[in-house]
Structure formats: structure tokens, C-alpha cells
Write a structure and sequence with these properties.
The protein is an alpha/beta fold. The protein has helices spanning 18-50, 67-78, 80-85, 91-110, 134-142, 145-158, 194-198, 205-234, 236-244, 260-263, 272-277, 333-343, 360-368, 387-405, 421-438, and strands at 54-60, 184-186, 281-283, 286-291, 301-307, 320-326, 352-358, 412-415. Strand 6, helix 12 and strand 7 (352-358) form a beta-alpha-beta unit.
């Protein structure tokens, strides 16, 4: 049989109904919309490929200098969607911070002879340690369940490994004479390590269900104890006892005793400020990649590594080093020594430095309370005992070390306030310029 020949011209299209015509036009519009979306996505991908891939930043500073806080500030600023997806996962950490402060106070009440504890140098107590009021004895009993809550939260955050493996002290020294205890995570666990613990550290449904059940029980206990926690913190005997021992819990990381009523609610959801204040101590180097969520950012991502100064020489491929110096403690001998170490390191000769004088707010409160900076740093002499004068003096001291010990002249970028949007933008510009310069794009 011969193949059927095409008829030309083709027969006219039979007339269609109005509804069919509208349907065909709608299909054509949808096809065009999809085509345009694909074209836009391809164009965005081409632009993304043109952007430099990564900026490398190294955070350095002594313990509790604020490295984790500035890291969280970076994520909140550059990757807010990712930051907020982790909100609920921070709740156990914040609750643990709060509970450990409470248990620290209860532990002090139980200590009859504080001077027997290592490092304790208390003044003579205003009242004998064994003469607690009836109210404090009642609070000690009513808040006893918080010991169990602390253990539950610690095990959840530390995972399946025993908590002792993560801590630097024995159980006998659990309540440090001048500081509330904190949980420590090994390197690799990371600042958001507890995200996996929120899911039980496993894909097992039973494990997750158990973790959720324990979390609910802990929240109910905290809710029931909220009133007594506030009463304990406000008790004059407690405040006098802390003052006698020269302990200022308000200045310690992870302090939430000023937000008990809100944080102890069963339906509590952490705010961004709560997450920035939360404290998890990490041991060893930590590396975090922040993927820029704004299409207008030049760099695709930042790799931020938090490390001990002793290992800084092994990170000579970074674009910028951010050095955090906590100035709230008045005596900065350790920070100045660490700063001199990295300034004179020849392997870091091409790396730009950003100095961040941290915890200025605490320093300001101390000076306004009457503490004289010159009593702690004699070289300050008779300069005005004002926060601005002290900050300038310290900033100049770091700048002098940089000029004296750097193998070659190096510009130092200084910041002496908390990580506001303006400060982060300034830091961003320095990092961007150095990253582009290193990749020969400038």
C-alpha cells in the first residue's frame, strides 16, 4: 500500500467553542510563563556562577570573648531564613543555660564552707552559710526537680556520649565557686550541633518521640517552677551571698534569670536576641559555612572558622582574621599577649586584621558603678575614668602592638561596639575587598 500523502494546503481547522478557545489561550499563557521562569532561573544561575565562590574568615580570641555570638550575628544578618529555621532547636540550650544558673545558686546555698572550693576567695559572708531563712530552705526543696531537668537537657544536647566526656571538670567541681557551669561540645559538634539532638540524634521515630516527651516534661517543670525561680533570684540573701563572693551572674554568658517569666512558658519560642545570648561552649576548631541568601551579595558564601590562637598559623589561606578582645574584665594581659602572637606571625603577613573590642556594655556598667580602670591598669594613670577614654586607650594599645610587631605595615580595622548592622556592613566590606583581591578580581 502506498503511503498516505500529505494534503496541501491542510484542511481548515474546524470551528471551536468559546470555552475551548479560552482554554487554549490560557494554556499558551501558562506555557509562556513557565518558559520565562526557566529563562530567569538560567540567567540567575549564570550570574551566580560569575560571583566569587567563598570568603574565608578566621575568628580568634580567648575563651568567652564572644566568637560564637558574632558568628550567630553573621548568620542572622546574611542568612536570616536559615537562622530562623533553627529557632526551636535553641530552646533546650536556653533552658539549660537558665537551669544551670538556678542550680548554681542552689549549690552555693548548700556550701557551708566556700573557701574549701578551689579558686574561691569570698569575703566574709553577711550571714552564716548555715543560717538560711525558711524561705530559702523552702525554695531549695521546691526547685530540687531542676537538677533532673539539667541532667535531661545536658544528655539531650551532648547526645549519646556521657556528658563527662565533654566537660573539663569532675562532678565534684560541678559548681564552680564563681561561675555557673556550662555544657561543652567537641569540635565537629558545632554551634548548631543540637539540631540533630532535637531529632534524637537518630532517624529512629521512637527516639524522637522520647526526646519530644522529655522536652515537654522539662517545659512543664520549668513552667511550674517559674515563680519560685524569680523569688530565689530576687531574695536579698541570695544577692548578698553572690556579692560577698564577688560573683556577677549577669555578666556571664547564657544569663537568662532576667527573663524567667517569658522563657519558662510552655509555649516559649526563642527570639533572635535569646539565641544570640545563648551559650554552648565548644572545644577545638569550629568551621561554619554561611550561604548568602541575598542575590545582591557579591560572595556566594562565607566560611567562618573559630579557632585557638595557637593554631592560627595553619590558616594562612584566610582572607581576614577577626580578633575578639573582651574588655569587660578590665585586665587584658591575656588578650594583648594573644594579639601580639598573631601580629608577629610571618605566615599571616598578607592577612588583614579586624580588631573587635567586645563586651563594651559590661565595661560601661562597671565604670558607671564606680570601678576605676586605673586601679586595674596602672598605666592608665590619671586619665578620665570614662568609658570612651578607656575604650580609646585599649584600642590604641592594640594598634601600637600591631604597628610594632607586624613584619610589615598592615592596616588594622577597629570596632568597639556590639555587632550592629552598621558594624557588620563595615566588616563585610573589609572581607569582600580582601577576598576579591586574593582571587585577582580587583
Amino acid at each position: 500500500m502506498l503511503p498516505r500523502r500529505n494534503v496541501w494546503p491542510p484542511p481548515p481547522t474546524p470551528p471551536t467553542s468559546e470555552s475551548e478557545k479560552l482554554a487554549r489561550l490560557e494554556a499558551e499563557r501558562e506555557a509562556k510563563r513557565v518558559s520565562n521562569a526557566i529563562d530567569d532561573a538560567l540567567a540567575a544561575e549564570r550570574e551566580q556562577r560569575k560571583r566569587p565562590s567563598n570568603a574565608k574568615i578566621l575568628l580568634l580570641g580567648q575563651a568567652e570573648s564572644g566568637k560564637s555570638t558574632i558568628l550567630k550575628n553573621f548568620q542572622l544578618y546574611f542568612a536570616p531564613k536559615a537562622f530562623h529555621t533553627e529557632t526551636e532547636a535553641w530552646r533546650p540550650v536556653i533552658h539549660l543555660n537558665l537551669v544551670r544558673s538556678v542550680n548554681f545558686i542552689l549549690g552555693l546555698l548548700e556550701i557551708r564552707h566556700p573557701s574549701t572550693y578551689s579558686g574561691a576567695r569570698p569575703r566574709k559572708p553577711s550571714t552564716p552559710d548555715n543560717a538560711l531563712s525558711g524561705q530559702l530552705r523552702r525554695l531549695s526543696i521546691s526547685l530540687a526537680p531542676l537538677r533532673q531537668v539539667e541532667e535531661s537537657l545536658s544528655n539531650r544536647i551532648a547526645g549519646s556520649r556521657p556528658i563527662e566526656e565533654y566537660t573539663d571538670s569532675s562532678e565534684a567541681d560541678r559548681y564552680h565557686p564563681a561561675k555557673a557551669s556550662e555544657i561543652s561540645l567537641r569540635s565537629g559538634a558545632g554551634w548548631t550541633a543540637f539540631l540533630r539532638f532535637r531529632h534524637g540524634g537518630s532517624t529512629s521515630f521512637d527516639r524522637t518521640e522520647k526526646a519530644d516527651s522529655e522536652d515537654l516534661q522539662n517545659r512543664r517543670i520549668l513552667s511550674a517552677c517559674a515563680g519560685d525561680i524569680m523569688t530565689l533570684w530576687a531574695a536579698p540573701e541570695v544577692q548578698r551571698g553572690l556579692k560577698d563572693r564577688e560573683i556577677t551572674l549577669e555578666e556571664q554568658s547564657g544569663f537568662f534569670l532576667d527573663e524567667v517569666q517569658r522563657i519558662c512558658k510552655e509555649d516559649y519560642v526563642p527570639t533572635s536576641d535569646d539565641i544570640l545570648r545563648a551559650r554552648v561552649h565548644t572545644i577545638g576548631p569550629e568551621e561554619h559555612v554561611i550561604y548568602m541568601e541575598s542575590a545582591h551579595e557579591t560572595m556566594r558564601s562565607w566560611t567562618v572558622t573559630s579557632q585557638r590562637v595557637a593554631w592560627a598559623q595553619f590558616f594562612d589561606d584566610v582572607h581576614v582574621i577577626i580578633f575578639l578582645a573582651p574588655i569587660s574584665g578590665m585586665c587584658l594581659a591575656d588578650s594583648l599577649k594573644l594579639w601580639r602572637t598573631i601580629c608577629c606571625n610571618k605566615l599571616l603577613i598578607s592577612v588583614q586584621f579586624i580588631l573587635f573590642l567586645n563586651k563594651v556594655d559590661i565595661l560601661t556598667r562597671k565604670i558607671k558603678a564606680g570601678i576605676r580602670f586605673a586601679d586595674h591598669v596602672t598605666s592608665f594613670r590619671n586619665k578620665p575614668n570614662e568609658p570612651k577614654e578607656v575604650i580609646k586607650y585599649l584600642s590604641d594599645a592594640f594598634a601600637t602592638i600591631n604597628q610594632t610587631y607586624s613584619p610589615r605595615k598592615r592596616k588594622m580595622h577597629r570596632h568597639d561596639t556590639k555587632a550592629t548592622a552598621v558594624v557588620i556592613d563595615d566588616i563585610r566590606e573589609v572581607i569582600l575587598l580582601n577576598a576579591l583581591s586574593a582571587t585577582n578580581m580587583l
